[in-house]
Design goal:
Elements (H helix, E strand, L loop, with lengths): L2 H9 L4 H9 L3 H24 L3 H10 L10 H6 L6 H9 L3 H12 L3 H25 L4 H18 L1 H11 L9 H9 L4
Helix pairs in contact: 1-3, 3-4, 3-7, 3-8, 3-9, 3-10, 4-8, 6-8, 7-8, 9-10
């Protein structure tokens, strides 16, 4: 299962994209494009975080502190108060100092102002974390299982979005490899120890 592809399909279902676009004040195609780059970046940063010492614990806390529901399950309720989901804090935690550069890059590619890209990212983060959180709980994963899942999902997301892969390389110092030889190979390539 490709989580990012599943989320993009949900975004395109019914009036979800129109609701998100109206909420952030951007055009539908540009917002969809921003999500198409933002969702893989969030997934990639989650994989990087999970692979770092203590990172799986950080993600587990995010997923279990009320963020384990997918905003698309109740989009109207979520968009009426998106700050309640803590998406901005999630993006800040996951992307850190790279956040403004990534937002600027997405802004340049989509034509959306950086402030709107920031809002789109604050919606994207709870979407990814909520989806992964449901899987984490339902499959009773441990830190190793979470790290493996995120590594696999990140590779799929980056393979499907060359723009996101290029941004990951530019801003995070590593491209998520399309064929990394398992989690060990993924970590070696991710941290440049090949």
């Amino acid at each position: 299962m490709d989580i990012v592809a599943a989320l993009m399909k949900q975004v395109a279902t019914g009036d979800n994209l129109a609701m998100i676009s109206k909420s952030v004040g951007g055009g539908g195609k540009a917002v969809q494009s921003a999500l198409g780059m933002g969702l893989p970046m969030i997934m990639g940063s989650m994989a990087t975080t999970a692979a770092a010492p203590g990172g799986a614990d950080i993600l587990t806390k995010m997923m279990t502190s009320g963020a384990s529901s997918n905003p698309l399950d109740n989009l109207g309720g979520f968009l009426s108060n998106p700050a309640a989901a803590g998406g901005s804090a999630m993006v800040s935690t996951l992307l850190g100092g790279q956040m403004s550069g990534i937002q600027s890059a997405i802004s340049q590619k989509t034509g959306l102002p950086p402030a709107i890209v920031s809002q789109v990212m604050a919606i994207a983060a709870p979407m990814v974390i909520g989806y992964v959180g449901k899987m984490f709980v339902s499959q009773k994963m441990d830190a190793k299982g979470l790290t493996s899942l995120l590594g696999d999902q990140s590779r799929m997301a980056m393979a499907a979005s060359p723009e996101a892969a290029a941004m990951a390389k530019q801003f995070m110092g590593a491209a998520i490899p399309q064929s990394a030889g398992g989690v060990g190979g993924f970590l070696k390539k991710l941290f440049g120890k090949e």
